């Protein structure tokens, strides 16, 4: 083979390497959602590219085989071909005859490497990263042809690699799962709000929607101490009085035991009796079957249960089978849209700011209080509300005037990124070891032995070994 033919072969094979590198990076980087949109609009090349991406692991194996084979052949013929070209030049400049072979080989190797790296690797890689969807569509037809021809050999190599991977305890996958994480979407929402593209209200709704599935019935429910109920042996007149006094449409019916819920009664049941019978009709005769759900049930599953039962009211029970509270479709909606106030709601304690201090209802969940005040309060599985946090840190029931400092969780997003449990524990550990923001809490009023109204303020970053300290 003459040097000219060999060099021509090097460039042809380098083009082949570039083709396989472009395949590899284009299909890894391409936005499948965008390709699906184009395919839905009638773009046949986009549909063909999606079919390639459905077998991504096999396609990547085929591309690797192509890159390896063309690279090996280029290395075999490029070095002697370029050495043969540069040898006369080295002789012409007066290089000693003994050094010419070694120098010509080194120069040939360097030239071949530059050509292979620039034209065969870097150029197609950068091209694929710059225009992944367009390149994926351009290469789709030829990729299908190549996979059909090289399929048996590639499948042999691919199955061998998959077998080794399974031996290592890892299950191979055929395609990548594209899409942003919840943290990435949350960052996009925050940036969009900061840039003025989203209103604060819409940003809040989208942010709550991201983590809607992480919340449970126990977090959205009205706790048992705030639940109004009626005895099974009471009359319908008692229910009418409850509705007139508190305004709610449905009430759980208590059985003989304290935590026993035997049914639910509401406006819909009262409509079936005559006004004259209200004082004599027993509640147990009007009751409908209660929808009972565990407090650990995720909210999306709770909505499905309500839809299946055709009921907007559910009784929440704890792990011991006792009534933990009640949850309505309105309570679930508030997890998405924020507080929904109607004429039946009691006036809630507003979250107000006075200088550095925030005043709020201690019955707020810790994450809700953190969102409204901007104070990164530490979350834990040991409590749900600010009141629970205070009691847990004090180790006793709170009294008006109690003040304490708690270690704030450094970066609430860490809890989202690493899992709710890990994030909470890491926040506490990091606080002990490296210093943390601290939040000072003052108990203003107490109801039923637990804080009712509290004040909070940020204390700033400090270094301390304790998680909470009393403030004199």
From TrEMBL:
One Gene Ontology MF term: flavin adenine dinucleotide binding
Coiled-coil stretches noted in the UniProt entry, renumbered to this chain: none
Membrane spanning residue stretches: 58-78, 99-119
GO cellular component: plasma membrane
Database matches in InterPro entries: CBS_dom (IPR000644), CBS_dom_sf (IPR046342), CNNM (IPR002550), FAD-bd_PCMH-like_sf (IPR036318), FAD-bd_PCMH_sub2 (IPR016169), Ion_transp-like_CBS (IPR044751), Transptr-assoc_dom (IPR005170), UPF0053_domain (IPR051676)
First-listed, main subcellular location of the protein, grouped into a coarse class: membrane
Region spans: Disordered: 406-436
Protein family: Belongs to the UPF0053 family.
Protein name: HlyC/CorC family transporter
Organism: Jiangella anatolica
């Amino acid at each position: 083979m003459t040097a000219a033919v060999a060099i021509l072969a090097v460039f042809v094979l380098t083009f082949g390497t570039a083709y396989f590198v472009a395949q590899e990076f284009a299909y890894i980087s391409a936005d499948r959602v965008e390709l699906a949109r184009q395919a839905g609009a009638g773009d046949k090349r986009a549909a063909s590219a999606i079919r390639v991406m459905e077998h991504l692991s096999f396609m990547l194996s085929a591309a690797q085989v192509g890159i390896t084979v063309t690279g090996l052949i280029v290395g075999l013929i490029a070095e002697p071909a370029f050495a043969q070209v540069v040898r006369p030049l080295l002789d012409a400049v007066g290089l000693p005859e003994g050094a010419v072979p070694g120098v010509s080989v080194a120069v040939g190797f360097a030239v071949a490497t530059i050509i292979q790296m620039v034209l065969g690797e870097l150029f197609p890689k950068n091209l694929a990263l710059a225009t992944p969807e367009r390149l994926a569509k351009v290469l789709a037809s030829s990729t299908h042809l190549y996979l059909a021809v090289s399929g048996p050999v590639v499948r042999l190599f691919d199955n061998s690699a998959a077998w080794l991977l399974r031996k290592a305890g890892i299950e191979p996958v055929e395609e990548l799962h594209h899409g942003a994480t919840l943290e990435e979407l949350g960052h996009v929402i925050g940036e969009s709000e900061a840039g003025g593209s989203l209103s604060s209200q819409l940003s809040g709704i989208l942010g709550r929607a991201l983590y809607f599935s992480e919340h449970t019935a126990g977090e959205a429910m009205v706790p048992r101490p705030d639940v109004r109920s009626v005895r099974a042996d009471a009359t319908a007149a008692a229910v009418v009085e409850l509705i007139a006094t508190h305004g709610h449409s449905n009430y759980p019916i208590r059985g003989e035991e304290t935590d026993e819920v035997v049914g639910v009664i509401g406006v819909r049941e009262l409509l079936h009796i005559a006004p004259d019978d209200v004082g004599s009709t027993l509640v147990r005769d009007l009751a409908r079957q209660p929808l009972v759900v565990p407090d650990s049930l995720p909210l999306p599953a709770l909505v499905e249960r309500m839809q299946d039962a055709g009921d907007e009211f559910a009784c929440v029970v704890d792990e011991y089978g006792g009534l933990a509270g009640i949850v309505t479709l309105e309570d679930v909606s508030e997890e998405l849209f924020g507080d929904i106030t109607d004429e039946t709601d009691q006036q809630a304690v507003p979250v107000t700011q006075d200088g550095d201090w925030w005043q709020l209802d201690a019955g707020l969940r810790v994450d809700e209080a953190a969102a409204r005040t901007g104070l990164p309060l530490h979350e834990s599985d040991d409590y749900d509300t600010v009141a629970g946090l205070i009691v847990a840190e004090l180790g006793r029931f709170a009294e008006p005037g109690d003040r304490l400092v708690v270690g704030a969780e450094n970066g609430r997003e860490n809890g989202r990124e690493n899992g709710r449990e890990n994030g909470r524990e890491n926040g506490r550990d990091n606080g002990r070891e490296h210093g943390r923001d601290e939040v000072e809490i003052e108990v203003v009023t107490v109801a039923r032995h637990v804080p009712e109204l509290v004040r909070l303020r940020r204390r700033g970053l400090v270094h301390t070994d304790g998680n909470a300290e009393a403030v004199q």
